[in-house]
Amino acid sequence: MCTAGTGYPWEKRGAGDGNRVWARPGRPRRVERVGGRTPMSATNEAPAPRATAPIAAAPSAPGSGGTTVNDLELPVFDYTEPGLAGEVYHQRLAEVRQQGWLARSPLTYVVLDRESGEFFLRARQTAFPGREIAEIFGVTGGRLWEQIDANILNATGERHRRLRALIGPAFTPRAADRWRPAMRGFLDGLWWDLGDGGPPGGCEFVAAFAKPYPSLTIAAVLGAPPQDAPRLHEWSGWVQKQFDIRALASEPARIERAVGELYGYVETLLERRRRDPSDDLISTLLAAEDEDGRLTHDDCVNLVANVVAGGIDTTQAQLSHAMRLFAAHPGQWAALAGDPGLVPAAVEEVLRFEPITPFTARICTDAIEHRGVLFPAGTIVAICAERANRDAGAGDEFDITRDSGGRLLTFGAGPHFCLGSNLARAELEEALTFLAPRMTGLRPAGEARLGGLEGIYGIDSLPLAWTPR
What residues in the chain have per-residue pLDDT under 50? Predict the structure, then answer.
């Protein structure tokens, strides 16, 4: 699975003269007329919520064909608010969505409906602001900057198309299906370890299954030894924090160290596979590197690092949320246990109902007009997959027996649609198929400890209980 940052804090400079002056370190300043208001904060403090007027009622910006987004009176959604998770988070978003398709947040404008979300994800005038986020926090060199700069999320144009064409065949539905037997073996081993050979009746699910399972799967896909899975998991978690603005601000050295360790490991693994090729992703990439130079060595290293970073922590979070939802809906869990044919629909409903990347950031590289609203170049929008997925008519109830209502934005859309989506779906399907008949009477055994919304929306702890068979 893939991820993307939620926001982008511009640095505010200049006097309160009716102009807003934003700048990135080392880049020219940009002045934007906003009618004397400061609708977005450069800190983590959101403006106080206020009564909102319909979007169409705002005045038009001079010289444009529509209303400038900065001039709109918008509801406020602060996704950095402490404790904003679970049902509180869903209710808050639902309230904001009732007021329109667009909201203001501390760092971005939040796009709340599916049609508009797809527009910004597919628009040629938008890009992922990974480099800009890094620069704001002083990351302008070193291994972390190199990883961010080379990340396929930040690639555009011909380079992006070339990299996706080279790695894409390893993540087709058929390619993902190849790893299903290995997934079943990993699940069986984890189940055996949990009960020490006997029938277990409860566990802390994140530690017992959600952490090790995707790590073992990615190790197999790459051709890494299974005993390296715990290290891959640790590196994935830390490297993913480059998308968490709080972590990037407070722990850049730790993220940098993890990136350096991961890259060193990848170089060693590449050399091992060069000497001893096998039927795995790294051997396939090395063949492309050696065959005709379509893939450089640096490309190969970066793609493998991207797979580790994007393919472990994400699936861990989505599987954890799946089990949290089923523990809260025992009737649907029982239906799943009784009819394995429901598993694909159950996975789609989990992805629809609780996307673990609820906000995906895009920066407008040029001015864009959408639905009569002008978004100047440099504007950051956060596409809200949580509301977009519920905007399709499926609603706010968790139900594995109905149609998801159309395309989901959980994996994004457009040129950067998540390459790992098929592998993630296969992992989730195999996990639910394995666990449903074994965890009879699934129920919470304590309160789940939910993570924040700034990066990956995960679960730190999920105590579960069931009736041993």
Answer: 5-64
